[in-house]
Structures are given as structure tokens and as C-alpha cells.
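Homework help board

Subject: predicted structure for assignment chain

Our instructor gave us this sequence and asked us to write out the predicted structure in C-alpha cell form, then describe one feature. I got the C-alpha cells but I'm not sure how to describe them. Can anyone check?
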Amino acid sequence: MAGDAASNLAQPVHVGVDLGTAYTVLVVLDQEKQPLAGAYRFAQVVRDGLVVDFHGAVDLLCELKQTVEARLGFGLTTAATTYPPGVPPGEVRATMHVVEAAGFICKYAVDEPTAANAVLQVTDGAVVDVGGGTTGIAILKDGEVIYTADEPTGGTHFSLVIAGALNLEFDQAEILKKDETQHQRLFSLVRPVMEKVGTIVARHIAGHAVETIYLVGGTVCFAGIDHVVAEVTGIKTIIPGYPLFVTPLGVAMYDG
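My C-alpha cell output:
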């Protein structure tokens, strides 16, 4: 029986890597593309979609890979990765080079909101990935992505505002921002950044018949952002469960 279990675990899997401005996430799906394992860590090795610390990014991803491999009991060989819409092709290649330098074969790179929609399966609407540094938008019609865009503004800006207002170090502001018990107290400070996100979304969906906005990414874990985006855009706004992991789970579906 033990041998059979090990054999089942060693079946082909699908791996997704999301190198975000705030979090680097690695997820593994099984043959049926259901979640199997994963790991993530806060690290600022990417800024606004650009790899600013190549060696740090590689080292971090190697650590996550080894952690997940130890948990699963077998090695991971391939992975797909993400990039913010609109970044130069050279930066997309740089992201793929990080994944390859960590020991993966990386054949696919997918823009973040499109990757997220592999999980959400939105046929008509806008998928908005609010990451640490940028807000990425994909507009879908009849199941096809018809428009993508990306602009600076994300969770890092929340932290900068909190740090400035409360005279904290950036790292202290990051910790405070992630404490859900503090969200009500901090809401008035970060609301202008939320409104900026809403304004970005509104500008890019103008002229498109978008009836629903779907927010993903770690930044949307801050309570109230969906209501602010809905107020600014005038459009129904939804946050799915576990928004930090939607995009990496989606890009894993492109692996293999």
C-alpha cells in the first residue's frame, strides 16, 4: 500500500510560480489540476513586474522548491510563471530566467489577470489583480481576453502611506497592514490608494460593457477595498476566496 501511495504522488503535476512585488508563491496541482501543495514568502525581489534582485529571486525560489519537494517526496521539473500585463518582453524573459535558474523548465509565461481567470472562469467581466506594486486588468468577452493593462499602485503603496502617517518603518507598516484587527483603524489612511486602484480600473474598462469586476491578489485581502472599487467604478465588485493564491493556482494550469 505504501508503494502504491508513493507511485500515485509521483504522477505528473502542474507547477505555478508567481513572482510578485510582495510575495513569491509556488503552487503544485495534481493530475486533475486540484491543489496539492504550495509555499510562499514575503520578499521584495521584484518591483512593479521587474526583477530587481535576480540572485535573491533565484535563491528564494530554490528554497520554496526544496520545501515543497520535501513535502511531496519527489522533484519538480517544470513550471509556468506570471508577469504583469504590459511589461516589456525582456522583463518577461527575465522572469522566466529566474524560474529556470531555480531548476525548472519554464515554457509558459502568462499575464497575471489571465492566469487568475483560469481559476475564476469568467466569461464576461474584468479580472483585476492588485499586487504589491501594480494593478493588472484583463477584460473578457465571451470567454476571450480582449484587453489587458497594468499600472503602478498596489499593496506597497498601502504600506508607504501607513508608514508615513504613523511614523513607522516600512517593515513595521507591512506587518500592521496584514493584521486584520487593524484594518478598521487604518482604513481612512489607505482609502485614497484604494480609490486610485478604482480609478485605474474605471479608466481601462471605459468603453467596454463590464458588468462585474473580480478582484484578486494579496492586496485585496485588506477589508473594504471591494466596496471602494465598486463606489468608484459604479460596477459590482467581487473578491473570491483566498485571493492571494488565485493567480498562482491559475498559472499552474498552464504548466504541462
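Reply (TA_rk): Your C-alpha cells look well-formed. For the description, you could write something like this. Residues 183-205 form the longest helix (23 residues). That's the kind of observation they're looking for.
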